[in-house]
Automatic annotation (TrEMBL):
This is O-methylsterigmatocystin oxidoreductase. The lineage of its organism: Eukaryota, Fungi, Dikarya, Basidiomycota, Agaricomycotina. Belongs to the cytochrome P450 family. Its cofactor is heme. InterPro entries: Cyt_P450 (IPR001128), Cyt_P450_CS (IPR017972), Cyt_P450_E_grp-I (IPR002401), Cyt_P450_sf (IPR036396), Cytochrome_P450_fung (IPR050364). It comes from Rhizoctonia solani. One of its GO terms (molecular function) is iron ion binding. Heme binds at residue 118.
């Protein structure tokens, strides 16, 4: 959101239009917030938690596009490369949730394939939706400013020495979108909800 304030503004506008300014999203709102869902899909496409997917063992000899794969071979689906395939995604390095308005643009199978798909898919989708939608509903994220008031443009980098994608830390600012939103946040904390 820090590098894409237009995306943040569009997501916040959808939240305001659908829910109003003084309401936090719930799971029942997921179907009514397509831009938020597309934003999450785009986030997962560019930064999959498991860039190489979950390893699978081939249960029988197989041939995939001319490659022989022996029974017992461990196979990884390179989600990082799939999500950056310019044959599937125009301008693959650009964060663009609107790309999913085209029904022919594939959704990256970040939870795996077939019978071995991640059993926590629904929990992960729901918790990610609530977290992202709630943060965007209440806060505005922006670039941090230096002592001269100039914006500091963060370098978004990932840790590349593991099987799990880890975003490197960077400085940014976030603040409640308005006094009304601050009261909503404070009220939730005070009530323990």
């Amino acid at each position: 959101m820090i590098l894409n304030p237009d995306v943040q503004a569009k997501a916040q506008q959808e939240l305001d239009d659908v829910l109003g300014r003084a309401t936090l999203p719930s799971l029942s709102d997921m179907g009514r917030l397509p831009y938020i869902k597309n934003l999450i899909e785009e986030l997962w496409r560019l930064y999959p938690v498991f860039p190489l997917g979950i390893p699978h063992a081939c249960f029988q000899d197989d041939n995939y596009r001319g490659y022989d794969i022996e029974k017992g071979t461990t196979v990884f689906g390179n989600l990082w490369a799939m999500g950056r395939d310019s044959r599937q995604y125009m301008d693959p390095e650009v964060f663009n949730p609107d790309r999913y308005l085209d029904p022919d643009v594939p959704r990256l199978p970040i939870f795996g394939w077939g019978r071995r798909k991640c059993p926590g898919i629904h929990f992960a989708e729901a918790s990610t939706f609530i977290m992202i939608a709630s943060l965007l509903a209440t806060f505005t994220f922006s670039k941090k400013r230096d002592s001269n008031g100039q914006e500091i443009i963060p370098q978004i980098e990932v840790e590349r020495n593991s099987l799990v994608l880890e975003l490197m830390s960077f400085d940014f600012e976030f603040k409640p979108r308005s006094e009304e939103h601050r009261q909503l946040i404070v009220g939730i904390n005070a009530n323990g909800e």
